[in-house]
Amino acid sequence: MTYEICCGSYEDALQAHRGGASRIELNTALHLGGLTPTIASVKLTRQNTALKIISMVRPRAGGFHYSEAEKEQMFAEAELLMEYGSHGLAFGFLNADATIDTENTKKMVELIHAHKGEAVFHRAFDCVKDPYASIEQLIEAGVDRILTSGLAPKAVEGKEMLRTLQQKYGDKIELLAGCGVNASNVREIIEYTGLSQAHSSCKDWREDPTTIGTQVSYSFAPAPNESSYDIVSEARVRELVQIAL
Q1: pTM of the prediction?
Q2: Is 128:111 a contact under the CB 8 Å cutoff?
Q3: Is the dihedral of CA 156, 160, 163, 164 positive or negative?
């Protein structure tokens, strides 16, 4: 089993490392679904851990149909993320009709592979209309791995699709089950689908007493965590990793 931990910062990466993870997806702004991490977080994670780092390339929240300026930014960031130590990149390009943007997908795969990295198509895949045509296009484009919940809100709800995709395409592309995966359901998902990789946030909350002022609030978390921000829990990572032992 490979367990990938979704991290929103260098500090999260340290927590994942201490918990026994071997691979992370490195982001910022996980409350927005994950955006491109800073170069500093990549460098520090490389310097101070033995983690394999898959860096997110996503310039904004929302969907995955990007403007020309956004694509220009994404490719510039991708080059830097690989140059400064990422082992691979997670990305996703869709056309306005929810089909794979094959032109930009192939271009990104070529950039990543030129740096001898892993090309991961993230959960933009879960927004496509036809998963079978889409996965065949991603295989043809040279994508190494797809992060997916089986097109469902949570991976445990999409386990039927995950199993079907694994049976049909598992010998051609890696599949990584993600969204809502935790120590309580990972065994069920893995045993049912036949996948050997799982992606989990192992999330907890840490209070910051300066989040809410007398008249101003920077709160983004739902109750009862209005004064907190999300972090990776070392204990939850360790609990998840122990499932494989």
Answers
A1: 0.96
A2: no
A3: negative
